[in-house]
Design a protein that fits this description.
heterodimer; A: alpha+beta; Umud Fragment, subunit A; two-stranded antiparallel sheet; B: mainly beta; 1 helix; 33% strand; mitochondrion inner membrane (chain B); hydrolase (chain B); Peptidase S26 domain-containing protein (chain B); Pept_S26A_signal_pept_1_CS (chain B); serine-type endopeptidase activity (chain B)
Chain lengths: 163, 162
């Protein structure tokens, strides 16, 4: 007996539904546990990242270590996701100039357990741990791995380039 | 960035060894489920939560919409150990001024603090046996990962957490 229009329509809808569910699950697991793309802009990471915008790939697999560029939720504003470099891990002693515009007075802080100290590569225009303090590990979302765009700079994101 | 260090008696803080979810048929980790059950068996939240272990139903949606208020019991990722979750009550939102006793066992040396922008102040109900914001300072709001709704086990205490 031939199937009615609704039977066929129902089967098609089920097939598409299963496909959508599979694609969604794959994307969900990949972006939440493996890697995710991100768009980074702003002057605080010159020369590592372009101020006018980069599309990068970030990974969630490795634990952040010294020298990694990480993306994290800002302790000041949960809706913001700054990208900075990890300069100190828990237990490290970090020294920084408190107010570069005013004087050369510097402070040394020991990074507490469970936190990291982040600083932008372009120290003159970067809002980082020198303003909001050490960042708890739980706020770190991923480590920047690869720059996808602009295409001229396609490649890994590595240690700070010394000028 | 408030730095507070006091000699507090360390007595461990709330929760999870495991989180069991019997409700959702899903492959995903409890962080991304919208609801899950949670076992809490530490003294830091007495008398609200029992010492012998309670299973609580928690939801992971409110904090995304900013709907965490004063007096809510929340699940927070510990700032000192990112693999642990703690269960505490929110006693201060950003901008609030709080005073607390530096060491409730010893005396009344009171400390006043203003909760900075983007942070919350969490405290366990059992002040004598809780490691919370009085030890590690105000916690960034993004570390809040869930809100406790009600207690599901033991059955005679089923109901809201007040």
């Amino acid at each position: 007996m031939a199937s009615s229009f609704w039977n066929i329509a129902y089967q098609q809808a089920m097939k598409s539904g299963v496909l959508v569910a599979k694609v969604y699950s794959f994307l969900h697991v990949t972006t939440n546990y493996l890697a995710f793309p991100a768009y980074a802009f702003g002057p605080s990471m010159i020369p590592t990242l372009h101020p006018s915008g980069n599309v990068v790939l970030a990974e969630r697999i490795s634990k952040p270590s010294r020298g990694d560029v990480v993306v994290f939720q800002s302790p000041e504003d949960p809706n913001k996701l700054p990208t900075k470099r990890v300069v100190g891990l828990e237990g490290d002693s970090v020294s920084f100039v408190v107010d570069p515009g005013k004087n050369d007075e510097s402070r040394t802080i020991v990074v507490p357990k469970g936190h990291v100290w982040v600083e932008g590569d372009y120290i003159q225009n970067s809002r980082d741990s020198r303003s909001f303090g050490p960042v708890p590990y739980g706020l770190i979302q991923g480590r920047l791995l690869w720059r996808v765009w602009p295409f001229q700079d396609f490649g890994p994101i590595g240690p700070p380039t010394t000028t | 960035m408030a730095e507070i260090s006091k000699p507090m008696a360390w007595n461990g803080e709330g929760s999870i060894g495991a989180s069991i979810n019997r409700r959702q048929v899903s492959l995903f980790d409890p962080r991304h489920r919208s609801l899950h059950n949670l076992i809490h068996s530490r003294p830091s939240m007495l008398p609200t939560l029992n010492l012998t272990g309670d299973v609580i139903l928690a939801e992971h949606l409110s904090h995304r919409f900013g709907k965490i208020g004063l007096g809510d019991i929340v699940l927070v990722r510990s700032p000192t150990d990112p693999t642990r979750m703690v269960t505490k009550r929110v006693l201060g939102l950003e901008g609030h001024k709080l005073s607390f006793s530096a060491d409730p066992l010893v005396g009344d040396g009171s400390v006043s603090v203003v909760v900075p922008k983007g942070h919350v102040w969490i405290q366990g109900d059992n002040l004598y046996a809780s490691t919370d914001s009085r030890n590690f300072g105000p916690v960034p709001y993004s570390l809040v990962e869930g809100k406790a709704l009600l207690r599901v086990w033991p059955p005679r205490f089923f109901g809201s957490l007040r």
